Amino acid sequence: MGAKRDGEPVNKRTTVERKSERELVTKRTFNGPARIVFEAWTKPELFKRWWAPRSMGMSLRSCEMDVRVGGKYRLEFEGHAMAFFGTYLEVTPPSRLVWTNEESGESGPVTTVTFEEKGGKTLLVLSELYPSKEALDAAGTGAADAMSEMFEQLDELLVTLGAR
Amino acid sequence: MVHYTHARLDASFAALSDVTRRGVLEQLGRADASVTDLADKFHMTLTGMKKHVGVLEQAGLVVTEKIGRVRTCKLGLRGLAEVTEWIERYHQLWDARFDELDKVVEELKRKEKIDGRKKRR
């Protein structure tokens, strides 16, 4: 019903591209105006609901966001000692957000999100620009470390099961 | 956070269900070692250790390389850092996030519509 009124159905494909040696670009189109999508990125109570998808076994313990130029954010995940934090460099409602990712020091990327509205839909482009090729590659290794952490948890679980 | 094929996960579970094999992984986390070193460290026969390493290798948790007469073992997790796999996981994460964001956007749109109607009244 709603889809008809809104025109063509939205292609809900998420694409990720390594655009250069130090940049990853992710795109997706949302079925709503830019101001609404922007709102979901800048209000903590809304942001919290999608940033840590339950389908990925994630959940946020806390989410603080001071969305203005020079303002800080801090996200803490449940079950980990992991915190993600940084500073907003650009805040242009409802079309552009730029922030730093400071949890891994100087090797962290700068994230730029643009919201481009067309016919009631919004094309979202998220770019993560790393300071170097090595930093982006290391982020990949970091993902492997997270994997190894998962195995540690698996290991603990097995020890618990074995102790019974 | 990571999607894994079931077969691979089963193999990993099986591999981790043994105390010696867990010890071997812990040891290799500190430094690469030869099968002989590992056998010594865990007071086992070479044949027994080879068996354990074989199970870990099948699960992708350990990779081995034979140089001359020595077979060196190292953690296989590093293989997971392959760029394609990392981008694939990154893609899965964002896809899952955006599916949730879709729901938030739909909800905000509905809310706006209702609020709009109220205002018009």
Layout of secondary structure:
The complex is a heterodimer of chains A (164) and B (121).
Chain A: H1 2-5, E1 15-20, E2 23-30, H2 34-42, H3 44-51, E3 60-65, E4 72-77, E5 83-92, E6 96-100, E7 110-118, E8 121-129, H4 133-163
Antiparallel strand pairs in A: 1-2, 2-8, 3-4, 4-5, 5-6, 6-7, 7-8
Helix pairs in contact in A: 2-3
Chain B: H1 6-16, H2 19-30, E1 33-34, H3 35-41, H4 46-58, E2 62-67, E3 70-75, H5 83-120
Antiparallel strand pairs in B: 1-3, 2-3
Helix pairs in contact in B: 1-4, 3-4
Structure overview:
The complex is a heterodimer of chains A (164) and B (121). Chain A is of the alpha+beta class and 164 residues long. Chain A has a single domain, classed as START domain (Alpha-D-Glucose-1,6-Bisphosphate, Chain A, domain 4, 2-Layer Sandwich), CATH 3.30.530. Chain A has 4 helices and 8 strands. Chain A has helices spanning 2-5, 34-42, 44-51, 133-163, and strands spanning 15-20, 23-30, 60-65, 72-77, 83-92, 96-100, 110-118, 121-129. An 8-stranded antiparallel beta sheet of chain A has the order 1-2-8-7-6-5-4-3, with helices on one face. Chain A is globular. The termini of chain A are far apart. Mean pLDDT of chain A is 83; it is low at 1-6. Chain B is mainly α and 121 residues long. Chain B folds into 2 domains: 6-78, Winged helix-like DNA-binding domain superfamily/Winged helix DNA-binding domain (Arc Repressor Mutant, subunit A); 82-120. In chain B, a hairpin with a 2-residue loop joins β2 (62-67) and β3. Chain A binds chain B through residues 12, 14, 16, 18, 24, 26, 28, 30-32, 36-37, 39-40, 46, 49-51, 53, 55-58, 124, 126, 137, 139-141, 143-144, 146-148, 150-151, 154-155, 158, 162, and chain B through 1-2, 12-13, 16-17, 22, 25, 29, 61, 75, 77-78, 80-83, 86-87, 89-106, 108-109, 112.
